[in-house]
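Recall that a protein's primary structure is simply its ordered list of amino acids. Everything else, from secondary elements to tertiary packing, is in principle encoded there. The following example makes that idea concrete.
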Amino acid sequence: MTPSTARGAALAFAAALGATLLMAAPVVLAPGERLFGSGEILGREDPNRDALVVIEQFRAGRVPAPYLQPLTDLPGRALARFVDAVAAYNVLVLATFPLSAAAAYLLARRVVGSHLGAMVAGLAYAFLPFHVTQAAGHPHVAQTQWLPLYFLALWRCVDRPDVPGAVLLVAAAAATALSDFYAGFIAAVLSPAALVAYGVVSPSRPGQSRRRGMAITSLVLGATAAAGLVLIHRFAPAVLLDPGSLAFARSELFAWSAKWWSYLIPPADHALLGSSVREFWRRRGVGESLLEHQQVAVGWSILVLGAVPLWFWLRGDRASLAVRSAPVLASLAGAALLCSLSPERRIGPFTFVRPSALLYEVAPMFRAYARFGVVVGLMTALLAGAGAACLWQWSTPAARRAVALLLGLAVFEYAPFPPWRWRDVLPTRAHRWLAAQSGSLRVLDCVAPSRGSDSLARTLLGHEVSLLGAPTFDDCGEPRLGEKLMAMGYTHVVMRRDSAIGRWLLANPAPEGLARGREFEDAAILEVRAERPRVYVSALLGFYPREYEGKATWRWMGQTGGLRVVATRQSEATVLELELKAFPRETRVEWFLGGRRAGELEVAADWRPYELALGPLALGETILTLACRGPAVVAQDVLHNGDPRALGLAVGSWKITSIAH
């Protein structure tokens, strides 16, 4: 007995929900600490960056204009009022899998007419590699449930051009655009192709009604587009009046577009094939845009099933709705595939221009044309459902065995359950350990700031966190770091093993004033154990980045540089012992304290210690300036090593001796 459409959609929802809970079990068990998806497929150093930006927006309740996508952002902000913002993010992402299955089921029941075919299409679309990979970092793009409902409303309006149909079409178009701007853009671009393909090869209406339905649907779409432009002009006028201010460079379209053969490559987080696929893309120089390239995989088994109704149609066996719909679905898949490709391709003396080149002229704020692959995936899933229905209706053991075999192969190709499809919302296990500590901690995280790291520092660790940033903490390798941290109230330092400074510090004894704490495979913790100093150096001013060799570390300056010296208590006498080296030969160096000349040094071209008597220092900051008498010399001119920097003096370690007042 065939279930009703509503009951079938509920079954598709339930099946996808069960699969989602299994696929994301680690996230479900700790929704406030983990994120769905593997960081490797995002192809960047900070895989949590985009997710943390959205989590922070959910927590703070603010999204900067013109980036508010209300049908995704507002529910996320509402959820964040009742649960942790990370948990709200996870709910919003994971809910898209059963919702997408149900939405694709409803569309498939209309164009395929089979419960089995609709179940196959719904589940194939819900766990499409596009969806699974985008859910790992792009919660707005992951809202794939609206596109099937949009095409369902569009084709229903063609078949039944009445007031309810027009209202449903407007509502579906608005929901698609307001959940994800890319989805709205994709729907707008592909609507003419979808309308013409369905209207010309309509599987259910006679010619006269088809023309009337197409005309009315076109008017509804035109009115909806006009209303959308009015709203854009009202709330984001720059999109229309100054699109160049939001534009990406045209060259970026080539990196963020698909290749036709990308649809045939397995997903990069496949349980068995993922490492080989990632290496394949790395050899082709695909890094940050890995997600956009590998997301479009559709699976060979799905393609074989999708070819079945097309084969029936070509041989003239067009009795079933599934077969009559096949050309419509294939046409729309082809249009979406063309739009997903790069702007142009040069073959010999000929340059072939593709749709994205024209679309960029109209909407330069969109660059990830590979995202049109979601419609390729949807149409292919519908064709696969139609193929499964056609073969099953043959009622022969061989045909049904073929269906079972191909569906089993599809499960293997999609492989949605590898054990690593989750990651901690915090960047390392050291951060997770710190987050579990009670009391008030002040932590220096030796990493350069990014959007995601800023959100992390403000919201997730539960302690005060500082990141590297000039001038206070422009590097973590400076001498006497422990004293400086103690003076500023810090308790811990996080060193990441994948950074140069982390590798250097962890390969050598702990610097004076710091003690090794807990160590993990991805990071280690140093505890601040220094005594509170009377005087310390808080920053180096005008120096090049720090360099390391063995146990030694130093920073070069040009002709002038400065040290910011801070006195925490008044002192009668302060002596600074500096390790210095001149370049390329011995040079005279004047030094100034608070802008007044205080002395002069003859600095050799090898490392030697030099004492500077600073005298009594008042509370607060004093700038010590070092100035070479002669001009700085470009390193390349002397060493012929390609170094373009103008160098004068290098500062190594230092030590301050102070007598209290």
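The radius of gyration is 31 Å. Residues 207-235 form the longest helix (29 residues).
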